[in-house]
Amino acid sequence: MPPVNPVDPQRDVLLVVDVQNDFCPGGALAVPGGDAVVPAANALVARFEHVVLTQDWHPPGHLSFASSHPGRAPFETVEFDYGAQTLWPDHCVQGSAGAALHAGLDAKRAELVVRKGFRPRIDSYSAFCENDRVSPTGLAGYLRERGFTRVFLCGLATDYCVAFSALDARRLHFEAVVLLDACRAIDLGGSLDQALASMRAAGVVLAQSADLG
What we know:
- It is built from four helices and eight strands, in the order E-H-E-E-E-E-H-E-H-E-H-E.
- It is an alpha/beta fold.
- The strands form two sheets. A six-stranded parallel β-sheet has the order 5-2-1-6-7-8. Strands 3-4 form a two-stranded antiparallel sheet.
- Strand 7, helix 4 and strand 8 (205-207) form a beta-alpha-beta unit.
- Helix 3 runs parallel beside helix 4 (191-202).
- The longest helix is centred in the last third of the chain and has 14 residues, at 158-171.
- The radius of gyration is 16 Å and the shape is globular.
- The protein starts with 11 loop residues before the first strand and ends in a 6-residue tail after the last strand.
């Protein structure tokens, strides 16, 4: 693994991805051990000068919900205009308790909360771009205007929103470091191994919080 240079408050930002109730045990789309990222994320928040959060934020009846497609079941894959899409249980519906950030997450120092997936007919995994790959969230412009060049990522889930965000960070010419001990995966049909391989190929540094020194 390439070495991780010390955190630089002038150019580094921590991106905490989707640490929300619906992705934690008891939630509508619970990631195994999802709540275990909370203390790890909080320890990272304490080390970074600059923190950004993301929040899945779907309207009722979102296109990615299996319930919006009679006869379909959660975790089936279908083809939409923008490509292959996994159908999910209804989750992170705007204003619901499931969409709220985990109560234990230290969110008070977040400088920005990026809500994604709010377009009714496009899902969004990445913090940077919706799944149609052309609708930006505005995060890249925000980071550039602030002068950030390296993004550290943690949260949920490793193989979906974290990985897509890291890959987009590289595509948009940011350095990207995923802190795996502060993430948890869904691992749907080998999705974790595939995501890890894709991130490595794109130049994403896969590290542990301890590697920060």
